[in-house]
Every structure is written in C-alpha cells, then in structure tokens.
Amino acid sequence: MAGFATIAALDEHSFVYGCLHDVAAAAPAAAPAASGGAVPAKLVEECKKAGEAVAAAKKSGASKDEIAAKVEKLLSLKKQITALDPTHSLAIVDKKKKAKAAPVEEKKGLSKREQKRLARGEDVKKKKKDKDPNRWAVDPAKAAAKAEKARLKALAKAEAEKADVKAIAPPTPKGDKKILAEQMSRTYNPGDVEAAWQDWWEKSGWYGCDEKKALKRPADEKFVMVIPPPNVTGSLHLGHALTAAIEDCLTRWHRMRGDATLYVPGTDHAGIATQSVVEKMLAKQSPPVSRHDLGREKFLEHVWAWKGQYGSRICTQLRRLGSSVDWSRERFTMDERCAKAVTEAFVRFHEAGIMYRASRLVNWSCALKSAISDLEVDHLELNGGELRTVPGHGATKYQFAMFTEFAYKVIGSDEEVVVATTRLETMLGDVAVAVHPKDPRYKHLHGKKLKHPFFPSRVVTVVTDDVLVDMDKGTGCVKVTPAHDPHDYDCGKRHALPFMTIFSLDGRVVTQCTPFSVTGAGDYPVEVFPSWIAGQMRYDARVLVEKKLDELGLLRGKSERPMTLAVCSRSGDIIEPLVQPQWFVDCTGPAKRACDAVRDGSLRIRPKMHERTWFKWLEDIRPWCISRQLWWGHRIPAWFAFRKGESRNNVDVDAERNKERWIVARSEAQALAQAQKLLGTKDVTLERDEDVLDTWFSSGLFPFSVFGWPDDTDEFKAFYPTQLLETGLDILFFWVARMVMMGLQLTDKLPFTDVYLHAMVRDKDGRKMSKSLGNVIDPLEVIDGCPLAQLVDKLKAGNLRASEVKRAEEAFKADFPEGMPRCGTDALRVGLLAYTVQGRDINLDIKRVVGYRSFCNKLWNAVRFMLGTFDDYKASENLWSTLKPLAGRDKFILSRLRRCVLDVNTCLTEYKFGEAVQAIYHFFLDDLCDVYVELVKPVMYDDDKKGKGRDAAKMVLWACLDAGLRLLHPLCPFVTEELWQRLPRTFAVSSIMVAPYPTPSEVDTFDNQEAERGTSLVLETVTGARSLRAQYSLANKPAHFHAVFSNDAERASILEGRKDDCSTLMRAASVSIGNNVTPPKGCGQKLVDDKLSVLVDLKGLVDADAEIKKLQKELKTVEPLVAKLEAKIKDARYLAKAPEKQRVQDREKLKSYGDKAAAARAAIKSWEEFKSGGGEEEEDDFWAEDDEDDPAAAAALEEAKAKAMAKLAKKEANQRSLSVHRLNCCDASRDASSMAWRCGLSPFDSSCATTISSRLTGCFVHRSKVYKGEHQPV
Question: Where is the Aminoacyl-tRNA synthetase class Ia domain positioned along the sequence (predicted)?
C-alpha cells in the first residue's frame, strides 16, 4: 500500500521523470550547468541510477511493489536535490508554479506544434516519414466492390419499397369484403389486419339467427346466450373484455359447428351507479348543480344524455373486441320491451302473494338517501383506532374500531350492568340489554329494569337471549338497538321489543321519536331528544355521547378493537342500518326450486366448487328489498289510494293498517278501477310511489325479456330457455341466482342450463380494479395503444377527486412510463383467455398481453413464409379426402394436428380456455414451425428432390394451415380471417367464421403413433446434438454427428430411416447411426438415455483456451456482484430497515448471480477436462458386438456398460451448466421460446430467460415423451 501511495505522490507532482528512461538518462548532462556547485555530483549520479532502475523495472515487468520501492528511493533523492537547488533540472517542479513560469520566447515561422516542441526542449523539426505520393489514388478493385455494394443495397431498397407498395391494400368500402393487398406485409400490424372485417361480418348477416329455422332445431343443436349487460356508467374495462373474449369464443365455436347460434347484446341502466356518476358530473360544473335544483324531469334528461353517450361507446368497444352479437336484437333494460316485462313481473309477484310492502331493516346510504343492495356495500377491515372522514361531516376525522364500555344502572339497586360497543352513538336507541340465560353472573337480573342516562322515562329491560349473547366474550352483556343493527333487529322481533329510529334519512339525530313494533305489539309514547344531541350528525353525536357519559361517571373504558366497516361503494358513506318502509319479495319458494335444480343436475354450475356458495346463500335467503329511493330506474307500478279530502298530511301511507290501500297494477287506469272498488267510492285520488326498482330486478328478467316475454312470440319459443350464462363469479347470487328464481317463478323454466363463472380480473399486484387506484384500463387503450399523457388527461376529465387523480396518475407513470403499447384485439383476447388457466383471480399484467402480440406476429410471419413455398400450388375442394402423406414427417404433423383438434374441442367443451390456447400455440409454433417446416425446407428448396415428396409436403402444409387457422379462429378472429383468405385454393370461400370447425372425426384417420414415436426419437437425438453444439461453441460450424445405440437395433433402424430429418434439424455435415459400434476418437459426447448417445467429432472445431478465457472474464464480472450482495444481505442495518419486497428482490438477484458463477466454474472445469484429454479419450470398448457364445465375456461386457453409463452420467452433470451458456447457438433461443409452454413458463417473459435456458434440454425430451404418450402436456 505504501508503494501505491508513493506512485500517487509522484503523479501529484507531475514527476514522470523516474519512470521514463530517456529523462533519467538526460540528468547527468544537465546537472553540472544547474548545480553551480550546490548539488554534489555524487547525488546527481545516484539520482540518474535510480531513474534507470525505475525504467528497467518497468520494462522487465516487475511487480507494483518493486516498482514503488524504486520510485520511493528516486523521489527521496529528488527531494534532496530540490532542497539544495530548486532550479536544478532534476528538482521537483510544482504544477501550479510551472504553469505560472514565463513562456518560452516564440520564434517566428514555427507552427503551434513546433512551438510546443521548442518549449519542451525537443527538436523543432522532426524527420518526416516518406509518404507514398499515390496514397490518395483510388484503388479500382475497391472502388468497383464499393459501387457494387451500393448498387445491391439500392436494388434491395427498391425491391423492399415495391413490396411495401404491394402490401398496402386500397381502402375497403364499409360493409364490403376486405380488399387484401397483393402481398403480405413484412410485419404484423394489428390495426391494418383488423380493419374492415367486423363491418363485413355484420353486414353479411352471419351474426343473426332466424327464429323460424331455430324452432325446428332440437335443443342440442342450438346455442343461445345473452350478454351480461354492462352498466352505462362508463366505458368497458378489462373485466368486460374477458367476458367478451370468453363468450365470443364460445359463440364462434358453436356457429362453426353448425349450431343455430344467437348471442344477444344489451346494456343495463344501473340505477344507483348511473345516477351517482351523473350527480358527480353535475357537481363539477360551474356553478355546481344538484338533482334537486333541476327537479326529477330535468335531471332524467341529463341521465338519458349520459346513457346515449356511453351506451354507444360500449357498443363501439364490443365491436372492436370482435363480439359477434346480433345487433338487431340489442336491448337496454329500460327500453319499451324490457319495461313491459318489468311491470308484468311486479304484478305477477304481487298476485302470487310473494311481494309486499313493509317496514324492515335495510342498508341505508345517508349520502344518497336511499336503500342499497348488498352488492353496493364494500366491507373494510379496520385494525383499531383508525381515523376517517365521513361524507356529510366535513373535513373532521372520526375514530373507528374503538370498543367503548359504559354502565347502565339497575333501577332500585346499586348494581350496574356494563356493556361495550363500537358504535357508541346507537346507545341513544337502546331498549334492552341481553344476557345469556345460563350465565350465572346475571341470573338475578333477568327481567330487571335499567335506567337510561339520557331518557328518564325510558325503561331498558334485561332480556335473555342465547342467540345474540356469547357469555364468554366481553362482559357477557349486549346492548340491544333493534332499529340500527341486523342482529339486534332479530333479537327485537324475538322479544317483541320497541324499535326506536334515532337517525333521520340524512344521518342526523332526530328531535323526537315514536317507538314502534314490527310485530304490532305495544303502544309507546313519543320521546323528545335533549337539545344538546338533537340535530347532530351521527359521528358528531358519538363524540358528544362519550363526553356526556364521562361527565355522568358512567364511562368504564375504551380500547382498540378490529372490526369490519360497511361502506357504500357509490358514495363512500358509512352504511347505516335503518328501518324503512320498502317493497320486498319473499324468495323462499323460488330459492328452494333453484337449489333443487342444481342438486338434480338440470342446472350445472362450472366450476363446480361454486355450488357450495350457491347453496349457502339460497338456503338461508332473506326477503329481497327491491325498492330504491332514486329517480333513475323503473318506477314502481304501485299507487296509494286517497279518499276525497285525504292526503299524506292526514294519512300515514306507511302504517300497517293502510297497507291494503297500496294498489299494484299494470297501468294507472287499472289501479284506479281497483282503488274505487276497494274504497267503495268513485271519488278516489291516486298517488304513485316515488321509488324505483332495484337494478337487479330488471336484470333478472333479461334472459327472457329480450325475447318479448310476457308475449308468447316465435322468438320467445325459439330462443328461450338459453343454453349458457357466462359471467363473473362475484355476481353469482346478485344476478345469476335471481335470474334463476325469477325464471322459474314467471316462466316455470330454467332460463339456462349451464352457468360458467370466470375469475375476477385484478391488476398485476392483485389489487381490485378501481378508478381511484388508477388501475382501470379501457380495452381500446390496449388494442390501439395510448400515450401516457392521454391516459393522464382521461383521468383528469373524469369524475375523480383531485387526490384520486394524483394517485391514479402516479400508478400509470409507474406501470406505463412510455404509455400503453399497441397490442391489437387478437392479442388481447388470446392473452385474457390464456390467463383463465390460473383459477380464481387473474392478476393481469399488460406486458403479458404484449407478449401475445408477439405470438400473433410469429403466426403472421410463419404463414407468410409458408405461403412463399407454395409457388403456383392451389388446393382443390376435395383436398381433405385425397390427402395421402408419404414421408414420416408428413404422417407425424397430421397426427399432431389430429391430437390438437381433439384437445381444443375437449377444452372448449369443458370451458378450459387457457388449455385450448396452449394446445394451439404448441401445435403452430412447436410442431408445425419448429419441426415440420424445418424438416420440409430441403424438400421445398432442393431441385434434386422435386416430385411427389414436394407435392405431398405442399398439400400437408396447406391442410395444416387451413385446419389450424379454423381451430384458432374463435380465439383470434381477425388475424385468422386475414390469413385464411390468403390460402391459395381453386374454389371460392366466404368467411372462416362460417367454415366448418375441425372435428375429431374429420381428422381421425391421421392418427399415427408410429410416426410420432419416430419423430420423438429424432427430436431426442437432435436435442443431444444441439446441446453438444452449445456446449462446445460450435454454433453453425459444419459438424459430423454420430448417434450410437447400445443393444437397440429397433430404434437404430427407425432413426436410420429418418437420417435426413436428423441431418436437417442438426444442420450437420453428416450423420451416422449405429448399434453396438465403436465411435471415432476425439468426440464430445451427450447421453440421451440409457441406450442412446450422441457424439460430435471435435477435431479442428474447438478452441478450449478461448472458451475458458470468455468464461473467466464472465466469472470476474459476476463474482464481485455476488460478494457485494452477500455483504449487503448480512448487514444488520439492512436486515432491520430494508422492506420485505427489497429483500426478496436482493435474494433473487443473489441467486441469479450465484447460479451464473457456479455455471461458469462448472463450464471451465468441463473445458479443462477436455483439454486434458477428457473429450478425446478413447471410449470404453463396450460398443463392440456381443459375443453370444461366451457368457463370461457377455457378463464382463454388461459390467463395462454399467461403468460406462455411470461415467457418462457423472460427466453429464459437469456439462449441463456449460449448455446454459451456449443456448443462444443453433436456434436455441427460438427453442427456448417455443418450448416454454411445456415448462409451464411464459414464452414472452424476459425475466425468466435463464430459467428457460436451463430447462431447454429437458423441454425437447419432455415433448418427445408427450408424443409417445408417456407424459401429459404441462
């Protein structure tokens, strides 16, 4: 270290003298003139020798420490000279002082370079080298070569431009069949490919289905499905896109199978959701406007305008997604036909006695002033003591999840009863305290009266209830507020307790309250609330009640307690359970029928695991509250009848005694006639109920209202019941169950026979799609791509609050820093369908969808290449009946096509869309492109191999493309139509969407297990050869390969027959195949299985030293990274402060670097063994022919074989890691991508490239075993 410091010091003083021999040698001549007798000549001489020593040490390659020691000695001598005479030529000169020294006098006539030489004391004029006078002359040969290169480049450019022009199609008139460009584009452009097809399909009438023809078809030859109508609250999101992809896939599949197919579109008015977004929009106007400012009619005009805007956008999105729906049958849940069905259903329910009006406990939103359904309630988990703002309460934050204990005094006693609650404000409505009947602590208090601290006249009764009370929890005493808690409500009914509504509809404490009973028992006086609490908002009242209890000495403690908080998903308001007069449907009977339908198999729910949820909800069903206090929706067809002189001012329309005066009818005229008959007078005034129906009421009628029910039309008879209902699993109860119950009640038929529930789409981090999180994505943004600025502008133009916009903007910038890439419809559809293999939830990463655009691109390029091999070939209409494969490779690919057809049909039948994607992907890219096309290239391009083999290959290739594209069409409709139309044929076709779907029976004759086993053997052998190429860095070098079998003449014979195929895939100079033969010396070896080895002749092909150097360089880069990460991870501060996510990432990095280092070391070892003779050693002589006449010799031979196999297995372990480093050779990168499915990996995930590479060797072996039926596809 001292030496390094010395060198640094020398450099600091610009002292290069001691390291340069010529400067040191010049010292003696300069010394006498500068010393003036002050510097001893001996010192100057020592300095000279020290300088020469430094120069000699550097020249001889001495170590740094030796050089540093000599430099240190030289520096010491220099310092002595400097101290004696600072002006001496050997003195150390400071840079700064040197810079300030007087400049050397310039001489005229010298260049700047010569002036610098003069200043340094060098010769001004350096001898110039003789230069060739013709050095600038142009070399004719080089000039000609350069000109030829430029000419070829220009020619290629012109050809490319010409091709591009031919690849540009003229515009297609709207609705006409697409005009295709003369040539296919060199690259896949989803925008160009998807243009015009949808308009043509729609105009051609293929989306429709004639009801008269459908009436003649049996149920098993029909496929009818209605879309889950999207809400008109806004645009479709990726969850809707998944729905559309699944449903359209099934629709196109059934249509191609020849079924009478109908897919009905529609939209839902979404009462509370749509009204909320329109109110938010009006509130953002300047000046802000509320619905009450506008009045009901004007407000509804705004809502209808919103529906017109977003309803049409939804239709546009569905068209862009390729949905093949019958647009002539499009329905909106508030159009005339649906409205008629809603009114009829309401009346029939009332006539059947299962619908009634009553005061019951409901979910109440004080912000919306309406009851809401359970689906519109979000449940938040709170840990305890959390602060939150509440709508309607300003900016104040209130504490939630706090358990507050307080005491009730026993009347006539000094005792008290302590209760606890997380909703302290509700004690204003307490009418009882419940204890367990078996709790010995309170047996003496059964039936006792307690004093309410704020209402002297109110008596709080001690009741016993073993349902409500768990005596092992808390104090064993539970306060009972029947009008503001579901459990207390049931308790109140069991004990005929009075109900006290303490909050108004907007969430304020009432000024007075009249207790009531839902059982009709009791007559209670009006209670007036104290002035200090009356009129206060709910959570302000909570604070005041706690303060008052503390003042009265009744507060007993407060602690944090985790709880679930119910919040309105539309307004963010905290739900208040409230007893309100509403319309209810008794679902007990219909729910039982719905359960029975699943049990007896007439209704099938897929996946089957969701049946448990079905029974859980329907076997314990509560009355369904169907009324909503909104303006947007179906107005309830019920009128209250007033006699002359009566009005709401003097008649309680909600009183139990007046319930019969609510008239339910199909029209106001019918209602008036019924009211006059009921009241016995003509002088009757009707007032219609202001409320509207729950959205799910009209949605529940959708499967039959769209076909004209209640009218018995041909349309209704032809298409109802439908075959399938496909939707998200989150609305199994809210929509699916209600459709089933309403269908059974109103039509006496199940509305569908099958229910398929797809998983929920979440973002890549598993979060729910939410506008406030900024992770809701419009499918068109994925299809067309979207700049980041546009994504942000869309957020700002919406109804989100400023804080939500900011959070969403940050999320977009993190996920899409360069904006949303353009993927196209086909990539989005197949990407979403591929995700369904995961199970319950789909954590969608858009980058995966981008990867499926690459799949479409590969498909495009593969078909483009294959079409180029057809020349003037055109398929005839009877191709399939005359198709006769000749070669083993032809039989193999047709057998694989048969298997793919069988697998895809099975997968679609069982709703296994992800597996269907994998099967088609595997066939196209692995079997067809990677194997068959590579095998037939020599046949297609080699003039010596023309004839029947080439003709058969063209027929087989055409057949595979035709069937493969038809298989893929339901998943990727646009690109398959475009490519299928380009297949050369002698007969006219219409569209792929009405072409017959490939069926197992169509290709059953192609089953050829022998050809598949033969190709499997070829692939296993090729895998071994490719591994050897990678291991020894042979890349595309012409290599000689040998496949050597041990006692396996049968497989050797099979491989001999496929030798040309092996040579093609290996890209070998030659291939030899033998059984029990001695391989040549100097070969690298790969053990394929216990009876097959592949060898490559390495003579003159490898440079072991160069490979070792590369690996050592890589190791030198990776090892410091490993050491740095290991130190970081062990650091105590890191362990204490680093977040878990960072620690996981660092551990993954360490493993990755460690694996690379280990692989490099193993590879170096393998190369060292090769250098020492391990790769060229003479093989054991166990390949010689068996000596059948000598049992001892045979036994010895078997023993030798066993030893050799063990030796090869050991060597294999060393070579495996080397293969990882060389997988980019010999098309291995393509193999890694195409075989990733077999490993269960995404072929497009760059982060798992190392994993793909390390597993590649096993991939080909696995695939070949799949062919033999030994393995199941992953």
Answer: 197-845
